[in-house]
């Protein structure tokens, strides 16, 4: 078995265990928090019998352990329960809200990698000179300003004062959403050949994705810079220079690839964290995403929905980690070949 | 006499950091003629390695570096036209390092690094041709399975193998001058001796000039035609190898030789720190004047 496949299987098994642990934790924590979900769902005017009936229907009067049994039984049948807030199956809600968030986070992640890494590389190559000072100033600014503040600033400047970009939403009014295939508007529009809709969706993505990505861009630039500077001190870079390798090639490949290894791991976590942090940005840009949904259901103590959302976010973290580990093991031959060498 | 491939005359070097100025070289002069093997011997911190860095024009542009005096490599002034020297790196002037394994990038295959080395100085080369030449070069340093070595990562090869790879890279483009900065000091003594002998055979048969930087007298004795002894940024003695070892004249050289460990000659022995006599002026053996000087 190839070492990469082995790594994959190992990590998948581990991920399932983590998911099980998270589900148990969030299941009990959500239920221990004070407040009656049935009462919140029905409102202050509902009668005591109605509340009691709902509690009975949702097994809320059973001991916690028994409730967990019901949860597991539903889960085995692929059912995450029903939201008390939207009154729809939680899975259906997630399917409706997750793609909007994913689309946002993907674009933001892309910006993080495509802008942050080259910026850090540029700074490292011109250490303590003009480009470095500028890049460091920009990245500190980006890191220490919260995403929702960026959201408001971007809206104000680029959607209001200079109305270049749309203020909010996923599509302009009058533009019909593309047929639902993946739920990602850009992808669906592309798949069905509606290029106008795709551009419109992309156009709407730019501001919220930028707001969400800025701190990640700053973070990745800073990480790349420090990792590159450390790599530049390595003997193999001295060797490369002594052998006349082009400075640009060293920056782009020879020093960049080893420097990427520690950077990527942290970037993966940053990327996954954006899923959870997207809430305020979604709020500012009226973006119908999962983070917003998650906050709503927590405030309403919507038990099934809380568990569902947390599980999805945890799964995203795990998947991201897995992907990052795979990329790192491809870049780092020591990991990939460790197995062979041991034998 | 053959033309010198490396000439250093009255070279001063200081590093400035803030208000502190540390003088590292106090006017050293040395030369290496074409095809000649010259050793520069001294303890760590004596200024050996910076001399090699200066010869590659790698230090001059760094902030806080103040270099004065002449360094001429293959007819080009390393201080005034560092770009000319930079263009010669990797093919006309090459280098071998202390620890071969850390001098090879861990995330690239040997073959990928070798290909870059063969393209040093902007030489155009197709991948197949590079591969063929790299295999031939590895065969020449007695690597048993060159194709496999090229497909390996440095961490998959032993230190000795990596040193052979490094020697092959250093000689692949037929350089006129090889700077060997404590080559293989990080390896164990027998492997170091083996690879040095290999390097010696190859440079001798090709007539490559070598500036051999070392603290190890016994290695120097076996390898070099001529020796400069450097102490705290000053050359203190200069002579042909047999002259210097049979008739050491400078107190520092005497101390070095007297302190040399008898078995195989390992690391640098303890010396009485800063003995006054070590500051004695340069002693030059017969027939070893710098070019342009009158032999005494």
From TrEMBL, chain A:
Q: Which Pfam families match?
A: BPD_transp_1, BPD_transp_1_N
Q: Which InterPro entries match?
A: BPD_transp_1_N, MetI-like, MetI-like_sf
Which positions, given as ranges, span the membrane? 12-33, 94-117, 137-162, 201-218, 259-285, 305-331
Question: Could you name the Gene Ontology cellular component terms for this entry?
Answer: plasma membrane
The yes or no answer to whether the keyword Disulfide bond is present is no
Protein keywords = Cell membrane, Membrane, Transmembrane, Transmembrane helix, Transport
Q: Which GO terms describe its molecular function?
A: dipeptide transmembrane transporter activity
The record describes its membrane topology as: Multi-pass membrane protein
Give the UniProt subcellular location, in the record's own words: Cell membrane
Tell me the Gene3D superfamilies matching this sequence.
MetI-like
Any idea where the ABC transmembrane type-1 domain is? 98-328
Q: Which family does it belong to?
A: Belongs to the binding-protein-dependent transport system permease family.
| UniProt protein name | Peptide/nickel transport system permease protein
Species assigned in the record? Pseudoroseicyclus aestuarii
| Taxonomy of the source species | Bacteria, Pseudomonadati, Pseudomonadota, Alphaproteobacteria, Rhodobacterales
Automatic annotation (TrEMBL), chain B:
CDD domains (alphabetical): ABC_NikE_OppD_transporters (cd03257)
**GO cellular component, as recorded:** plasma membrane
Annotated compartments: Cell inner membrane
| Gene Ontology terms describing biological process | peptide transport
InterPro entries per UniProt: AAA+_ATPase (IPR003593), ABC_Ni/Peptide_Import (IPR050388), ABC_transporter-like_ATP-bd (IPR003439), Oligopep_ABC_C (IPR013563), P-loop_NTPase (IPR027417)
Pfam families, A to Z: ABC_tran, oligo_HPY
Gene3D superfamilies with a match to the protein in the record: P-loop containing nucleotide triphosphate hydrolases (3.40.50.300)
List the protein's name.
ABC-type dipeptide/oligopeptide/nickel transport system ATPase component
The organism's taxonomic lineage, starting at the top? Bacteria, Pseudomonadati, Pseudomonadota, Alphaproteobacteria, Rhodobacterales
